[in-house]
Amino acid sequence: CNTENPHPEERCGASRHEGWPQALEPAYLPVAGRPASPARAVEIARAWLGTPYVHQASAKGQGTDCLGLIRGVWRELYGAEPESPPPYTPDWNERFFAQGAEPLLDAARRNLIPTSRAGAGDVLVFRIVAAGPAKHCGILTEERRFIHAYAGRSVVESWLSRWWIERTAGAFRFPGQMGHGQWAMGNGAIAHDRLSTT
Q: Which residues 6+ apart lie within 8 Å of 147 measured at CB?
């Protein structure tokens, strides 16, 4: 989520306040009786493949950024989102990080279930700069693959290379998803001994 919006006046329906609001009381009930399973999360994410990258957007087939992809999968799993992000610039995480906060990682902690064993359907949050704030996210689809909105391009399924593994800030499960294929995580990063990058 690091490409500037060519139309900053477009806020994709986000609320107009500086900080991220506290989460609403969530209702983690699947939409239309379909289970909120890991396989369903992957199926939904794959339906977003090819959606153009548009900063702050979250509209399948029309435009999205990395956060918009996660929000869109949430909506298809549960309906209404638990909270709405404020308008954000490509450097918003850096500004909050300098103040001791990490909006993307903090929101994941409020609304998703932290896990030390990532599996298909889980959300991965990344630090683009190792010592910097978490500012990118995607959905794990297989042991070494994930779907994310690639800045300047579109939603793609990528190889989870050593570069991404070393920058993993956290892994999170959508609520209600348990007992699926999992891979070891360690110290906030996917364990290198379990995910070969060769």
A: 42, 45, 46, 48, 49, 69, 138, 139, 141, 155, 156, 157, 158
Residue entry with tokens 């298809």: 76
Q: Do 10 and 89 meet the contact criterion of CB atoms below 8 Å apart?
A: no
Residue 146 identity (one-letter amino acid)? F
Question: For residue 88, what pLDDT is reported?
Answer: 84
pLDDT digits (tens, 9 = 90+) for 24-45: 334 455 555 566 789 999 999 9
Q: What share of the chain is helix, strand, coil (3-state, %, to 5)?
A: 25, 25, 50
Sign of the C-alpha dihedral computed for residues 161, 166, 167 and 172 taken in this order: positive
Amino acid 97: pLDDT? 75
